[in-house]
Amino acid sequence: MTNSYNEMSVPLLPSERVDDLLTHDLRIIQSDEVFSFSMDAVLLARFASIPPRGRVLDLCTGNGVIPMLLTTRTKASIEGIELQPRLADMARRSVAMNGLEERVTIHEGDLRELHTVAGYGVYDAITVNPPYMPLNGSDLKLNTHQAMARHEIGCTLEEVIQACVRLVRTGGKVSMVHKPQRLVDIISLMRQYRLEPKLIRFVHPRAHLEANMVLIEAARDGKPEVRLQPPLIVYNDDNQYCSEIMDIYYGNKEG
Methyltransferase small domain: which residues (predicted)? Predict the structure, then answer.
């Protein structure tokens, strides 16, 4: 079944559009009415250590971009969980549009309760692109979908990390993208809940600017030892994507 046929057979709401994921002919349903994915999700999908087989889970999956991108890197069974019904529905339709129903399963539900259904320590790897900002007055200015994507309304950072440690097996990897301003909180909470940070990489918009994203990977019950990868620079002096970003978006996605 071709993508064009799938795209025609999957219904779209009036506000929705189909965007190209720029790899392996994947397409995704998006809408300006909800929070669309951005570069942080793409970078996390490439950064995360993913086993060739087994079970992989994406928390706060949104419209399912990370699970679909991960299908290009592994034969593992991939699941995503999303609290918002609208986004979970978009994710399921995107999975169907790409013919990935046998590879990707989208759950609608609360990540804080998933262990009561799935069990403890059942996943080999977990990815998460959580809401970045603690609750404050600004979230009231956004619509519900955007507010929940940006602010810790449906779950806090601590609750995300608690969910990770319940769901990942001993030695399994948890990979997260977040804001550098929260790095101390992330490391502190990870260690508190038996997730040992093993790999950190900062993402800078330009070489002379401070980082605006951080990628961090931890191992459940791992030994203390962390490595810092070279910084990832997004734009060069000509305001074009640097070569590594070009490779992530347009080049070999198998690595």
Answer: 41-148
Q: What is the pTM of this model?
A: 0.89
CB 66 within 8 A of CB 44: yes
At 112-131, the pLDDT tens digits run: 999 999 999 999 999 999 98
Instruction: Give the pLDDT confidence of 43-95 residue by residue, as tens digits.
Output: 999 999 999 999 999 999 999 999 999 999 999 999 999 999 999 999 999 99
